[in-house]
């Protein structure tokens, strides 16, 4: 991937319970930051509600502004209830 390019991937969160659940995506640990101070990884949406017995797609957008092998993010899918 070249500097200035954007890459997108997605993953699915599945609610196997019989009631709706709220979720938050929290970054626990991350690697190198962008020089511009814009986060290199964006999560869309970063919070929401998943209906009972449903799936919810989350998009991860990677947008580096300089070359590095140290970009990473450890993501927590937090379901508070």
Topology diagram in text:
Layout: E1 7-14, E2 21-30, E3 41-44, E4 47-50, E5 55-62, E6 73-78
Antiparallel strand pairs: 1-5, 2-4, 2-6, 3-5
Can you describe what's shown?
With 81 residues, the protein is mostly beta strands. The chain has a single domain (7-78), classed as Immunoglobulin-like. The chain has strands at 7-14, 21-30, 41-44, 47-50, 55-62, 73-78. The strands form two sheets. It has a three-stranded antiparallel β-sheet with strand order 1-5-3, with no helix packed on it. The termini are far apart. 4% of the residues are buried. The model has no long low-confidence stretch (mean pLDDT 93).
Give a quick set of tags describing it.
81 residues, mainly beta, Immunoglobulin-like, three-stranded antiparallel sheet, 6 strands, 49% strand
**Strand runs, count:** 6
Task: Give Rg in angstroms.
Answer: 15 Å
Global morphology: elongated
Distance between the termini: 39 Å
Q: Name the poorly predicted regions.
A: none
Q: What do we call the CATH homologous superfamily?
A: Immunoglobulins
Query: What is the third-level CATH name, the topology?
Result: Immunoglobulin-like
Strand content: over 45%
Count of runs of 4 or more consecutive helical residues: 0
The CATH class assignment is Mainly Beta
Whole-number tally of structural domains: 1
* Proportion in helices: under 10%
SSE string, helices as H and strands as E = EEEEEE
Main sheet attributes: strand count, strand direction, barrel closure: 3 strands, antiparallel
Structural class by helix and strand composition:
mainly beta
- Which CATH-level-2 architecture? Sandwich
Major beta sheet, strand line-up: 1-5-3
Integer average pLDDT: 93
